[in-house]
Fold each of these.
Amino acid sequence: MEKLIEQFSVGLFFWQTILFLVLVFILKKYAWKPILDSVSEREDTIRESLESAEKAKKDLTELQSKNESLIIEAKIERDALLKEAREIKDKIVSDAKGEAKEEADKIVQAAHAAIEAQKAGAIAEMKSEMASLSISIAEKIIRKELSSDEQQKSLANELVADLKLN
Amino acid sequence: MSTKKNIYFCTKFRIVNRQVIMQFTRALFFLAVLVLIQPVFLTASGHAEHASDSTESTQVANQEPAQEGMSMKQEIKAHIQHHLQDGHDFHLYTDTETNTHVGFPLLVILLDDGIQVFSSSRFHHGESVAESNGNFYALHHGKVYKTDAAGTFEMHDGHVHNEKPLDFSITKNVFSIMAFALILILLFTGAARSYKKSLVPSGSARFLEPLIIFVRDEIAIPNIGEKHYKRFMSYLLTVFFFIWLVNLFGLTPLGINVTNSISVTFALAVMTFVITQFSGKKEYWKHIFWMPGVPVPMKILLAPIELLGVFIKPFALLIRLYANITAGHIVLMSLIGLMFIFHSWIGSTLSFGLSVFISFIELLVAALQAYIFTMLTALYFGSAVAEHEDH
Amino acid sequence: MSVLFKYIVQITLACLVTFGVHIMILTFMDKPLFDNQIITAYVGNVALAIFIVIGLLKVPETLQNSRGFLFLFGSFLKFGFFFLAFYSNFKVDGAIQRTEFFAFFIPYAAALIMETKCLIDRLSK
């Protein structure tokens, strides 16, 4: 210890302190600051570019998945559209069928009615024709036959029998 | 935890690209070569300095007893001591034959009778007395003492009792610190410049960036936290690279041993201490003076202990760095010294091999100590700014 | 203001009591009572303690977190005060005697404890 103290030189201590402080100051200004700044700048750049690359990759995958989902969506939509179209077609067809049937039924009905009406009319006409014919026949017979009562009577019976037959 | 981190630290190099590894291996190779030639170098200078010491003793009056009679062991010990010491000139080695010193003088600045400034060449490597404005100074064991014109030292039981002026000289260590500061500034501003062109590092930045990121991600953020770490980054990075570089250069045969000087590690620890205390938040002080969550008598007992801990922590920091590096140098140089004590070729070869091995371990220790110092500094900063600790 | 006043009174009272006890002990031990700059030590320590407490209370909002640092800085200031005013006088005879040491240390400790109490009080707010 004594030897250490003896070795201690104030001058050397003084110079070392001064020179070292000057050295720290100069190196700080002209070396450490620029070096550390550029190193950290470079590290930042590397980190940023890595991050941006990562981000781009993520974006790309995102885009891809988005595209895929878009395609799937489009497919679904197309399918839905097709289905709807088919439904509409079916509906139209069935509607048309129903309408046509109705129309046909109506026409048939109308035809039936017309036929019925015509038939009725024909029957009525026939009846009246027959009535008038009968009357005229009757008149003729009557005019010819009714000269005797007997004859009248037999004719009347005959007529009645005929009528019943009718 | 620290071992795990070190493994990580080592493996981190594997991650960086091949070219960087190449650069690193090249640097390592260069260092290895320097380390390998160290024993050779020191052998030469060891002999040389011994010779110069002996001439010194004849020229300066009342120097220590002449060293001719010293045994080899003492000589080695003296050489190690000398090698670890700071000096007033940048002395590389001495040529014994011609007695010429290779190196260059530095500036001596003394606070004595005003400011005395003169070149250390006036000491003639401690061989003569320097005169400045009518005052006389001489060197003894690398320290400046005030003497008379003849350079007389008043010796009492091995200690010099002459007046010691306040020495603010640009010593070898101060000069080295300046050089290291310059190297660091050039290296890192160069690296910073390469970022202006593009964010991708090029050149030296390729090698330095993983280290900077290591300090940030493995030292600063885990210990201080994401929120506050930015404020301390400059200091942590500077401390880390300064200590590492200084330790590495301490392993070269240039004889620059900055981190094994207690004043340097003390200065670093004081800075860590001041920054820690100044950035201490309310919570930090509360934990020191009035520990929450413990009974009152415990609080009173803990306050002085905690307060003492505030000072002990940076003290441990400074001693750890100083002791590790100094111990490493002493072990290394003792092993090199052993080469001369063993006169057989087996012993010398063995200790040569051992010293090379220790040199490589010291390379690791150089980085490890820088890491530990920075790590503990970050830990203290972290405790200072922590907003609520878990107990 | 009233809080500051309360602290000042507390510090002064505590140091006065300590001073009384200190003098009493000195009397019992038959030591010179007002030697070793004991008055200067008490007055100086109390003054510094009050100064530091004022500093602690009046720090600007931005430096609220640095009150602990201010406290430590105050302690260093006291060491400076000791070295400037006492150390050389105590060292005149070559060594620091026990009475000399206590003449400075007791008021120092008393003032420090009171300061710490104020700091804890502030920190707990």
Amino acid sequence: MDEINSKQFISVRLDKDLYGVEITYIDSIIVMQNITRVPKAQPYFLGIINLRGEVIPVMSLRRKLGLPDDEFTNVSRILIVKPEPSVAPFGIIVDEVNEVISLDRDEIELINYDEDDTMAGFSAGIGKLGDELINILNIPEIITGNEK
Amino acid sequence: MDVSQYLEIFIDETREHLQSLNEHLLVLEKEPENEATINEIFRAAHSLKGMAGTMGYKKMQRLTHDMENVFSEIRNGQMKATSRLVDVLFKGLDVLEEFLVNIQTDGTEGKTDGQEIISDLNKILESGLGKDDSSASDAKDSASTPADKGEDKPSKDYGKYKFKSLSIDEHEKKAIAKAKLLNLNVIGLTVYIQEYCVLKGARAYMINRSLEEHGEIIKLSPSAQDLEDEKYDYDYSAFVVTKETPQQIINNAISVSEVKEVVADYINLEEKELEKYLNIIKNEEKQSALSMTSGDSGDLKAKTAPSRKQPSKPIANRSVRVDIEKLDVLMNLVSELIIAKNSLVSSSSSLHDQLEIAFYDQIEYLERVTTNLHESVMKVRMVPIENVVNRFPRMIRDLSKKLNKKMELYMTGEETELDRTVIDEIGDPLMHLLRNAADHGLESNEERKNQGKNPVGSIYLDAYQDGNNVVIEVSDDGKGIDVEKIKRKAIDRGTITEEQASRMTDKEIINILFMPSFSTSDKVTDVSGRGVGLDVVKTKIEALGGDIEAKTKLGQGSNFIISLPLTLAIIQSLMVQISTEKYALPLGNIQTVENVTPDEIKMIQGKEVLNLRGNVIPVIRLGEILDCEKSQEAEELVIVVIKKGERLAGFVVDDLIGQQEIVIKSIGKYIDNHKIISGATILGNGEVALILDVNSLV
């Protein structure tokens, strides 16, 4: 496979849909933890956790994307991601982590940007995985952009 | 010689010398005759020149050389330190500082060469020595102090025999006379060390050791401490009391390696003086013989003991320079240790029955050790605020000239210590407050005179420790803050409405000053008034976990009170339970804890208050502010009384968990928390608890 033209993603499930997170953003994947609520924080930030002695904020991706609220199960996971290599990490909660997939660049289609649709900003494109479509998440935009 | 490895030391020491020059020049301006100060200045300039030369910084060397010339004339009493001269010298220091900054950034001195200053200096030098009026009056001044003049005649050139130009103190003369009495020689010598010598301090020490084998050193110039600290060029002078001849002493000293040349000669007192001191010694001996019948002190050592005390080696400088990063690492490790200890404590308490008493003893011991360890590391990181504030007198002097207002800065508590990280950040806010005080706070000299005040304005900077906080107050005796003026300005700018303004207390109005881009100054000056000020100060201080408060009396002055936490990393806290959540309150802010019944809480103007022993304090229900789930109204409320400055407030909590040493961790930038949370901490069981910022809640 061509190194330059393909990228690896972790496919995760959120509600009924598949999402992809580029593997270079991912620091680690951990099981659900006790989350300490932070008062007055943005609604999509559920709070903070202790990850090996470091305090890390955790956000609910469902809330950020305007999906129905989380229900934590024993397959729920927290992806610890870094929007840039040198900045502090944060956690995003997903319903399930599936597998590592590779997508060629031409297998990813950018969706048309629409000013009113903030959700489009959180997407870095739509990938085709067999019959299914996978929404590639734009991690830097998720931490900086405004929710719906 | 490769000097790059000494660059850091050079930069550090140059900064110290420049600071010392700055301070002493300020003193000199006020007391132009202060000899000790002039000597200090001369020494600092001299070391600076030597160091710059060694490191190959030619421009720096050149400028310091010319400045040194001026200092030397001042020292000789040929010139007077006029305000104009001091101005030029200060400018020279600024250029030197510029060089230093450039050296620090790219290793070169930069483009400016200070030529202007050099020519200014030379002009002053020429006119000062010539027919300048001030020097004429100065000549009279120095003539009126013939005692000083008689002692040092530095203008006479003794060539290599530099020791002959040294002035001899009372007690040294006495020692010389005593030596004569015992038929010993007093030999003066000047030692020249090879210029390539790297450890000058050690070399001087070795030479002195070898001299001491044959006699007693009664005088060293520069002092033993300076020699050890390498604060001398390549030569130094000494007086030795010995049985040997000068030639023997020379042979002795030259045998030490890296010594280039030694010159020596007998030192004799004038007949009259010798007699005078001999008489003194005889009288003393009679007295001591009366008081002390036993024990004769015939041998040389005992005889010269009192005179030896002076030049004997002062307590050596027992400190080490450590990179701040290493200290940070150390502090992090201590933090981790405390987390580990906390988790050990918490897991041991769950095993309650199965553990032996001895185990708990050990745990307690561990707790004590970690607490002490933390304290020690913290102390290592503590720096006196002197390091920041010592540049302020100079700044105020410059401001005074610039604004054409006479003012004095009075500082106290410079020795108060703060964490290094805080020290690094606190300089700018303090500078800002001082500039404000100088520009807006103080009235012009005429205005002050008309109001019957001392025409010279006063600015105070006081620092002191208050419990777990350090308080720094910046105050002035100027016109104070005009509350009405702020009110009008705020209404004009739409910051507040007329109606709001009428309801606000003076204190609340003053707090408007801390809002972004608010300036009451009618005109923008060079110094301040652009409105990017107090809000930046406040933000900075809050970022350091501190707080700022303003007080004022119209016509009498204003007072800005900054309080800062002693340390940023680890604090003692009171853990409390609110609903199902745990929160930490910094122990330093807690006054008392009270149990009250719900009916003791009264409503005043729609707000809950508590009458606490005659003190009515507001009651804050933390559960509501923190949006916790409602807990049942208990029969008895636990109220933690918080003190912020002079204000008290009661925080209602559900339960107290206990006192705990906690490590503060940042919750990062992603989460927006409206400042009520100052950080988080990891508890013994791995849970995360939030630390409340009581300053923002009260």
Amino acid sequence: MADAQFGSAAPLPQGGIDDVELYHPHSWLTKYVFSQDAKIIAIQYSMTAMAIGLVALVLSWLVRLQLGFPGLVSFIGPKEYYQLITMHGMIMVIYLLTALFLGGFGNYLIPLMLGARDMVFPYVNMLSYWIYLLAVLVLVASFFAPGGPTGAGWTLYPPQAILSGTPGQEWGIVLMLLSLILFIIGFTMGGVNYVVTVLQARAPGMTLMRMPLTIWGIFTATILALLAFPALFVGAVMMLLDRLLGTSFFMPAIIEAGQRLRYGGGSPILFQHLFWFFGHPEVYIVALPAFGIVSDLISTHARKNIFGYRMMVWAIVAIGALSFVVWAHHMYVSGMNPYFGFFFATTTLVIAIPTAIKVYNWVLTLWRGDIHLTLPMLFAIAFIVTFLNGGLTGLFLGNVVVDVPLSDTMFVVAHFHMVMGVAPILVIFGGIYHWYPKVTGRMLDERLGQLHFWATFLGAYAIFFPMHYLGLMGVPRRYFDIEGLSFATPSVATLNAFVSVVAFLVGAAQIAFLFNLAHSLRHGAPAGGNPWRATTLEWQTPQTPPPHGNWGPALPVVYRWAYDYSVPGAAQDFIPQNQPDIRPDRSPGPVAAPA
Amino acid sequence: MALVLVLIALGSIAFHLLSPWWWTPIASNWGYIDSTLIITFWITGFVFTAIVLFVAYCLVRFRHAPGRRAAYEPENRRLEGWLTGLTALGVAALLAPGLFVWNQFVRVPQNASEIEIVAQQWRWAYRLPGADGRLGASDIRHVSDENPLGLDPQDAAARDDLVIDADLHLPLGRPVKVLLRSTDVVHNFYVPEFRAKMDIIPGMVTYFWFTPTRTGTFDALCNEVCGTNHYAMRGRVVVEGEAAYSSWLREQTTFANFAGGGERGRRVARREAPPVR
Amino acid sequence: MTLVLAYLAALAALSAPWLMRQRLGAKPWLETGSALDLPPEPARIPAARLGVTVLLAAIGLLFALLVAAYAMRVPRDAWQILPDPRLLWLTTALLVLASFALHAGRAAAERGGRDALLLWLAAAGTAILGFLVGQALAWRNLLALGAGPASGAGSAFFYLLTALHALHVGGGLVALGAVARRAAGAPGTETARLGVALCALYVDALLGIWLVLFGLLFRTPWSGWIYALCSPA
């Protein structure tokens, strides 16, 4: 295709965008606000996500206040309670976790780890952030709308979500659906960018099988998201029409407060299918980047290559593919054809196999390693423990018949908080402690970090482990008050109070983290370019923090995979990916390792 | 850190064994569900403890010390193959009993008697078949103050159905197929002691079955979020012996009497009016 | 949802050959050295084309989900009962015309003819605009017949599907405008040619989606196919 006469479009050098094509900011505004630099966008995404996440944290405090000490405060009634849990859940899953992993970590790490100058479509990338911000603002607006935000539960099941028996029916649900639609549009822009960047903008020599697992995780998660979010989009648009135009996509004939409503013929289960067709891949949209990041953290800080890299890659791809055929395990007791249960229980439990392989390989990476208990490593180990716990309780819920008594009880709440809340958030923290030196050029404070780590890890475990047993008793989720249930003994109230107190402490520990982030920006110890002595490309940038364009005059060339740690015979215990082989006679291989 | 991990593993087991929070004593035939759950606890508990303790061991044994260097081991196909195989085996050991029990769960026995539970925000109502032993037709079109369950007044099979507005009574040891209907939003009828439950979807009839195996009075709760008063949507199920059940049954009102405008019918109908929001 | 899974399976099948070429079985720790001794990557397609393709895959899934929702929601006896849509045949023709014009424009761009290219782009833009106006008129006709969105599942889906499709077409029109402006400014460049080619690809895809939707909502010669595709759902 490249024709000599069109000189301005000479073939791109392998590895991405030519320097001349890179967008150049001309003012402070375009450099730091309307920036098209993926690193700035990453920071914008992260700060917005953390800000809205802080709101979600406060909401969870209020939820725990009611559960632990019912009736203590008068401003939380049932209406407010349902609004609190709904907004907490939605913010955490979509606006914090998804945005932070893909928009935050994805934007920062994809170009840097792959040796690209930037994302391939910087302008679209910028739009992606601003639409995300708009989605967040619309969501926040619902707090101030008449009637307050929606209280339909984060699953937003119709018909309940848009009927007057649910709080926020007037404005809350409309704003929520609009916000979701905006989020999906914004995300799709970013997602196309991530996929194409991974596919096309890799530095010379960076084959797919040389990519760090972080990139594999983010890449696969992005593909999942591009294919899963349309289902939520469809569901949201249809529900919006049901609410605003009186269509009956999801609305059967309904009698509300003695009045027959205009709806008829719709299928509430259709929404559940659409929602979970999005909802289950969503779990992996959050989990796969966490898997990837934690693999790199463990490998780097144990000074050992990730064990079974190929298996890890295959497992990520397998989990991604399988995640599209398990959605109805959220619907075992939904009234769908019960024979589906056989199929979905099988697929769900099969997905446990690649997931288990990942856990084994993390653990086996520690085996015979040289373990530095740095903060990122601590968080990574804490991730293994909490993820293992949450993953195993998933085997209860995925096994259709065991799910019957447990579904919609506190067991489910404990399970998904452990596996999808605590575990990925621990990875986020670990990732921040790991990459903060690259982003800012300074280390985070170790003592504050230790405090933050122990409070968060032990606290979170103490909150969610006992909670499973409440569910086992039959304590239902989404109950404003369990007063009067015959099986809810006084000890249940004691346990609830205990959990609440721990939750307040864990929440408070996050203040130490935020303070650390702000304080270390100025006062942290200078980090240098590669404080962890890591192999991946982002640590090999000529300058730290990396400037716009990342690599100075020449793109890095990749000579090896991302995990050359403690290679026998090498002088150092790590060889950066862009280092040419200095020992041509080297005969590498597993057997070459002296025991 | 290693010490903490050991404490977590042992503490979790201790908590599991010693804590006072455990399932309610079962009152239905679904002891199989409990057994499957116990199998799951054994397998997952073993895996959890083993892996956490192994990590703790690694942390002690391979902690960084000056001069220490990690081994170089990109992969070990045999080990990975073994672990994959073992995991698959464990998963199969979980799945097989699960599917076996599920197969029973979805097959309603021939001799199960049908009852109907009708949910609306935020209360329960029940219907039992009349003398003809079957439930008559119903449709949301027929719902009115006089006819809160929307039974078809033209259907003879419906006219003798018993409409129950208070606690539901069930006879001990007789399988029941519970038909579930909702007139407004999604609900779920859950009695923890029975283990079984199912969502109630407006616009369709869902079902599940069980056999009560223990007399007593049990709390029923709505277990699918259904609006502001979801948490207050409670009911009660009384399981009793044949004699007590029959005498209770004789006191119930048929739909014909209920809707026919008798004083009792009106009184009940007024109580059926949904709570003021 | 069978349809959706089939769509995903098709996507997987399409990307499988590419994935196979990535040597996922390689042992990267044994392959130290520059990439030069690795097999060369197959010819790179332009990033923009890949981006549009990925976007279209997601858009395709969006509409596959909508079709699946239609199959689950609309009772069989209520399929394709909307009034005869003669106007929609006209709009379909306009969209075909737009696709044709864009392909002609692409050929013109290959030859480097600026005026011919702009002419074809203008023709395509007009045809797309005509399509959108026609769809709006179809809405008006149906509303005048009293078949508003709340009147039944079939008509509700008609408004939903046509509106979402029209939004995507409208997005394409905006992109076409940008491409035309760039082509007018710098005709004959690689960027201009690529832009026109991508517009053609995008409109082709939306034309394909429209044909499916048309056949789903109304009685067309190819409705039987779509009916068969959806029936296991």
